[in-house]
Structures are given as C-alpha cells and as structure tokens.
Amino acid sequence: MNVLLVDDEQHVREAIKLLVDWDSLGVERIIEAENGSLAIELAKQYRPAIIVTDMMMPVVGGVDLMAWIHEHLPSTRTIAISGHDDFDLVRGTMKYGGLDYILKPIDPEVLGEALKKAKLSWEQEESARLYQNLQKIEMNQLKPVYWDKLFSNLISDVNYYYSVKDVLHNEFQLSREQMPQCQIIIIGLEFVERKITEKFNNHRDLLFFALTNICNELLRSRHAGYACRYWNSESEIVIFYWDRFDELNDLLAEINSCFYRSLRARFDFGAGLAHPFPEGLKNSYDEAKSALKQRNMLQNINWLHVYEASGMRTDANAGKLHLSDYEEPFRMALLSSSEAEIAVAVNDWLEDVKLLPAISFEQVELWRHEFTVMRSQWAKLLSSDAGSGSAAELPSLALPIPLDDQGRLSLSLWQTELSDVLMKYSDVLTSSRQKDRSPINDIVKYIEQNYNQGITLQDIASRFHLSREYISRRFKQETGGNMSDFLEKTRIDKAKMLLQNPHLKIIQIAEMVGYPDEKYFSKVFKKSTGCSPGQYRKSVQ
C-alpha cells in the first residue's frame, strides 16, 4: 500500500512521517510532493491508497487536488491537513470525499486514527472490487459452458426449449418467426490426426475450445447459428444452423479452411436435413450422426457428408468383417509371448481388411467394441492361467485407430500400432505370472491380513522359510519400499478408517491396528499424515 504526503513545507512532511507507525498500517512506500500539480503526476504513477494533503498550497491547492482525485482515483482515500479553520475548505474536503479534516499543529493520535479509518475504508472497497472482478471472470468462463449445456439439452429434450426460449432469442437476437427450421451439423473428433493432438499436448478440452471459437466467429457474425461441444458425447462439436440455408455449404467450407489455416488439418462434417425448430432437432442430429458414421475412412476426398433420405450409402457398408472371427489366433499369439507370432496374427487380420472396398466409421466402431469384448475374455482366461484368478492387473488397452497425415485410416500404421499394443499386453501378462510365482506376493497378503499383530522381519523369515536378507531385497525390488514402511502404511490406513467412528477411543484404535502404546501410535500417525489422530478425526467429521 502506497501513501502520498502533499505539503509545500518539507518540515511538515517530515513531522508527519515521524508521527505515525507506518509499518503497523502496512504501508510499503511513502511518496512526497510539495504542491498539488506534482501530487497529480505522482498519483498517476503510484496510484496511492491514501493521500494526506495540505489545503493551502501554491500552483494547485488542496481543494482542486481533491477534486482531481475524486474524478480520476475514486478508490483513493484522502485526509486534509490545514492551519486554517475555514468553512469553504472543510466543505470542499467533504464534497470531494475527504475522510477527515485535521488542524495544525497535528495531534499524533488524531492523525493515527484518521489513517486507520482511511486504510479500513480502502481495504473494504478494494475487497469488494476484487470480488466483483472475480465474479466477472467466473461469469465469462462459465458463459460458454452454459450455452453448451443449453444447446445440448435442446437436442435431447424438446420441452426444454420452452423454459429457455426468452434467454435464447435475446442472446441471438431472434424471434420465433425467424427460426422456423434448424439444421444440425456434427464435426466428428473420434479420431484426430496425431499431429493435432500433439499440438494441444493431448489436451482435448483445449482442442474443443479452439474449434468452437473458430466456428462461432463465423456463425455469430452472420447471426446464422451457434457451435457447441455436445455434452452427451465426448467427441462431437455440434453446429446449430438456422438461417441462409443456401449459404451453408460455403460457410462450412470457410470454417474448414479456417481449421486448416490454424491447425493444418481439416475435419469431417456430417450434416442432417433442415427440420422444424425445436421439434426436429433430434431428427436432424440423428441424420447428421448417420451421415458421419457412413463415411469411408480410407478416403478423404469428401469432407462434408450429407444425409441422404433415400437410404444409406452402400459403398461404406460393403463387406462387413468381424474382428471377433480372429480371436483365437490373437489369443494364441498372446499366450506364446512371441513378438513374431503376434506380428503374424495382426498381419493375417489386416490382409483381409485390405480386401474391403471401403471402411466406414460404423465398421471401425464395431471393431473397437469387439476388441473390448475380446480383451475382457483374455483378461479372465490369461489371469486364471497365471494363477491370480483376477483380471485387475491386466491393462485396459483400446484398439488403436491410426490416421495418416491426410486424415485417412492408415493400414500400415495399424500393423505397427496393433502389434505394439498386443505385445504390451503380453509383457504385462508375463510379468504377472512371474509376480504370482514370487513369495513376496504371499508376504504382502500375510501383512495385510495380520497387520494388527507384532510382525517382525524375523517372524516373516521364519514363516516363509527365507532369509531376512532375501526378503528385504526382493520386497524392495517388487514393491518399491521396505517391509517395515509397508506395514506402517497399512496400519495407518486402517487407523484412518477407524477414526471415522466417533465411538471408538484413540487408545482402542491404536491397539486394534497393532500399537499397544497410544503415545507411540500418535507419534507415528502424525509423522505419516502431518496431523494427530484427534485432528484427523475432526477433519473427517
């Protein structure tokens, strides 16, 4: 906080500086001016929270200075100091928001109280102003989310429109008669070129934000529509288009050109037919979705896919091929843990894929679903084979769908990436088998079941007929920590659960988790969590 002292007499300014405990007020800098003109220049530069000014000064007097402050720095608090008990000076002080009028010679207590009052007033207004600014920032951040949610709801619930029609038409300056029909266009982002995701560091929210901004700059400048992220899908931008339908193709081409200039990539658009608004939004959305699903992913000749009312296109649907028909060779390759066998299984599959005249997005979705089902079956079978009886440790790997730099499905990249995925799966399986054969797994389970007993490394060595050195070394290799730390963590985790029960005393909990000494338990708990057991109990309650 800065304070500006204004007086044409230097000894008065020096006296004021000596009379006040500025540190206790939180004052960081005291600036001095010998007249009102210089004070104005310094106030522009430092924007002080408080100005203490004399009223009778050359060049620019106190009243004129306070009038300038009132107009240009309304948040600054002013205190007048004068050797004249003049009604006009007092009235000028009050008129321009002065908090106090102090007569010379200055009483230190009076000046100190006036400064405290000025500081409190300034802080209260500053806090209110900061709160208002934060509210404005939050509203600006939430506004796009609000419109995304509103438009998304219009598709799924036609009656929702009647509860928001006023705010909708006011925002977009429309009347009910101006929007008799609306057409839905979907921009599909299920599969995005690798270079695009890398540009956004795989942050899809930023990608959606960039694309919808580009769309809305063009749509709202024409008062023709709005683009939003569709809340019922993780990979769709939906354009609501309600005017100048004869210009739609040109507008979408311009949007895609802007995408290319900004991101060096073009995207596929699926367009439904125009339907009555709002009743027909769901029909238009379904049509746009259908058109997008039927696009041929081996080509990028057409980027705009318009729904054809006469029926589905046959080229992208020709020759259905099921990935599930190749489940056995994939499974046998995984069991072999052989990179060469996995490559052969993938190659056999892709050789048949190459015979297809076209590959639609719908076909790819089917393959992804089939791969998920196969992966689940493998997890159960292979985990059982490994002896764990659980699929929990096997990864949930998805079927990769690689695109080339032109945005087409790349079969050559698919060969490499699918082989890599299956090899990773096989590696985890092999590691799981080795872990299941390790005695450390049994030791971990024993500790988890007997943490409340007085377990020592020697006890474990005797029970499992192993040396203490071997257990210590292998335990750290396989778990990343030593056995005593694992035991302590297990006990503290159990204690946290028990502390949520207000009817259990802390000494009871200490004994239940293996600490017969309550003080020692409290010491270990605080070291682990940063707070005492009692403090932790209060925080969770």
TrEMBL record:
SUPFAM superfamilies, per the entry: CheY-like, Homeodomain-like
Pfam families: HTH_18, Response_reg
Domain of life: Bacteria
Domain Response regulatory: 2-119
Gene3D superfamilies with a match to the protein in the record: 3.40.50.2300, Homeodomain-like
Entries under PANTHER family matching the protein: ARAC-FAMILY TRANSCRIPTIONAL REGULATOR (PTHR43280), HTH-TYPE TRANSCRIPTIONAL REGULATOR EXSA (PTHR43280:SF2)
Name under which the protein is recorded: Response regulator
Source organism per UniProt: Paenibacillus oenotherae
Lineage: Bacteria, Bacillati, Bacillota, Bacilli, Bacillales
